Amino acid sequence: MKQKESTQIFEAVNLGIMAGMRSNSAPATASHILSQQYSPELGKSPLKFMQLPTVSNVLKVLAIGELIGDKLPGAGNRIVPVSVFFRCSAGALAGASIFKANGNNAFKGALIGAVAAFGSTFASFYMRKGVVQTTGLYDPIVGVIEDAIVIGSANYLNKNTESEFPVFI
Asked: Which parts of the sequence belong to the DUF4126 domain (predicted)?
């Protein structure tokens, strides 16, 4: 049984939003989900690497490193063009992988993930700046709140897909 297209869209949007907040979180989450359940559709595509447990683990380490690096004083601005590009690419990769795993058009999933990442990049940047200015909270504390949102979203998607994602044996 495959996921409904509306579920795939929901996941691609959520992964894109996560990518806008923490770029490595979306591919790490998508790869974790896909490494738990093999999809022959994904297995015969260029995106098959997203199902590999090793890739999943490497992406998780990168995501953890990003969570830490975001709090450092030298952390770059997420709205500089190169950062926006990588965030959109991360959202596209995650969205494409979810769609392809379900036998659907990877380009559609990539587009949804990239657009969501683009919007989330700017929305989360300006919301974080606004919260810091309005509340006087120290920026890294607001960053930890952002981290909690991303981690909560990843956990939700993982739990949500346990019963809905297609299981192929």
From this structure: 12-152
